[in-house]
Write a structure and sequence with these properties.
The chain is built from 16 helices and two strands. It is an all-alpha fold. A hairpin with a 2-residue loop joins strand 1 and strand 2. It is globular.
């Protein structure tokens, strides 16, 4: 059920940019909300596992289109100087949703039914659809380029197979023929995709965008940072429930501080760090903060106060808030408006795959060390397995910090504007005119 959704995301994300350009970002965004909401209702009403898996794949179609198209619409609306602030606002639902998920999920499963994990999406989806119809304006970015069928087949099959293998490997075993062959074939297809797309005038996956130094380096750093962060969010659920014996609801409540940290980190980035330090040092600082907090998590034991873990999760979120906001603002700083949708497709594909790799990485470490041990004939949690996974995740955060050397602050100089200065410059810079021109 989980892997079906992840694979579906990987399959449909590549088509999001073309669909947004061809039919209009507003129309595709609204359609994706409807598909996701209807599929959620169908998941909640599923009568067997087969139906649930099928409906989850349909839900992944909506999710795979929603985020890239929505991000493209946002960055087309705001000029580069305002994108840091826009990113700090965008990060709020990005931070709140994953943090509320375990809390609501734990409460629903414990007190009501697993079906409410899906039904809760209905009022949110309906509200989002009504809000979009009322306030979201369409614009004229529609293009008539032919659909790149070859690029879609290669990217969808390649990303889907790699996502399946990476997601299934930690639990089914990396040596299993299906897992190993999925990753190998998927990797070959993705490599074959590169020359195919570079030869096309209007590729579905615009590999030429990686020639843009700032987009390439920002995407790289975001991917390296997402691996440990998303991996640890998954690891914490295992650590709290299987390692420390907490309930699903308690696990969600203890994880929630990371969302508060992300929001605070995003605001600090917008108001102070990004305009003064630039994206390179801001992301490096955030990743080193993340690495330090993850390292300290390896010291948490069964008798440790949970306030230490909550504090460390808050600090980890604070550091990652610097990374998310800076990477989004800098990554699109030198991307032209016509290329925004395809850049968003690449950006989100990298983030999605990095999250899956992060989960696979920490899961593999836990499974390799062994999540349980036998003492005096009793099977008890083996906390060393979780501690090792925290340290591996911290190492990956350090690798991401090293990767920031590829980010050029000079390329993003026009986005390094303080809020006060932006407000004073707005009339002369023509910002009110820039928004309709970009198609808000």
């Amino acid at each position: 059920m989980v892997i079906g959704y992840l694979v579906s995301l990987a399959v449909f994300i590549p088509a999001s940019g073309w669909l947004g350009d061809r039919f209009g970002s507003r129309r595709i965004l609204m359609t994706s909300i409807v598909v996701f909401t209807v599929a959620s209702a169908m998941c909640g009403a599923a009568q067997n596992l087969g139906e649930l898996v099928g409906f989850r794949i349909l839900q992944g179609l909506g999710g795979g289109l929603m985020v890239p198209v929505g991000m493209a619409l946002l960055f087309r609306t705001f000029p580069p100087a305002e994108r840091v602030r826009a990113s700090s606002i965008l990060i709020i639902p990005t931070a709140i949703a994953p943090a509320l998920g375990p809390i609501l999920g734990g409460a629903f499963v414990t007190e009501l039914s697993w079906r409410w994990v899906f039904y809760v999406n209905l009022p949110i989806g309906i509200a989002a659809f009504i809000f979009g119809l009322t306030f979201l304006e369409g614009h004229n970015e529609q293009q008539s380029s032919r659909f790149d069928l070859r690029g879609f087949v290669l990217s969808a099959a390649g990303l889907g197979l790699v996502m399946y293998g990476v997601s299934e490997g930690p639990f089914d075993g990396w040596g299993k023929p299906l897992v190993a062959s999925s990753i190998a074939i998927g990797a070959v297809l993705l490599v074959a995709l590169i020359p195919v797309e570079l030869r096309r005038d209007q590729p579905l996956i615009d590999m030429a965008l990686f020639k843009d130094r700032l987009f390439r380096s920002s995407s790289l750093v975001l991917g390296l940072g997402t691996v440990p962060f998303m991996g640890v969010l998954f690891l914490c659920a295992l650590f709290f429930q299987d390692g420390l014996g907490l309930s699903a609801l308690q696990s969600g409540l203890n994880t929630f501080p990371e969302a508060l940290g992300i929001m605070l980190g995003a605001q600090m980035t917008t108001r102070l760090m990004y305009p003064v330090l630039g994206p390179r040092r801001t992301m490096r600082t955030g990743l080193l903060i993340l690495a330090g907090s993850l390292s300290l998590m390896s010291l948490i034991g069964a008798g440790t106060s949970m306030w230490w873990m909550r504090t460390l999760l808050f600090v980890a979120g604070y550091g990652m808030g610097h990374v998310f906001t800076s990477a989004q603002a800098a990554g699109f700083a030198t991307i032209s408006l016509p290329d925004t949708a395809r850049a968003s497709t690449l950006f989100n594909a990298i983030r999605q795959m990095s999250g899956a790799v992060g989960v696979a990485l920490v899961s593999t470490v836990v499974a390799t060390v062994g999540p349980v041990k036998v003492i005096a004939g009793r099977t008890v949690p083996h906390l060393t397995a979780y501690h090792a996974a925290f340290l591996v995740a911290a190492t990956m955060a350090v690798v991401g910090a090293v990767g920031t050397i590829t980010v050029s602050d000079s390329d993003a100089a026009h986005t390094m504007v303080r809020r006060g200065r932006l407000a004073r410059r707005a009339p002369s810079a023509g910002l009110p005119e820039a928004i309709p021109a970009a198609g808000a």
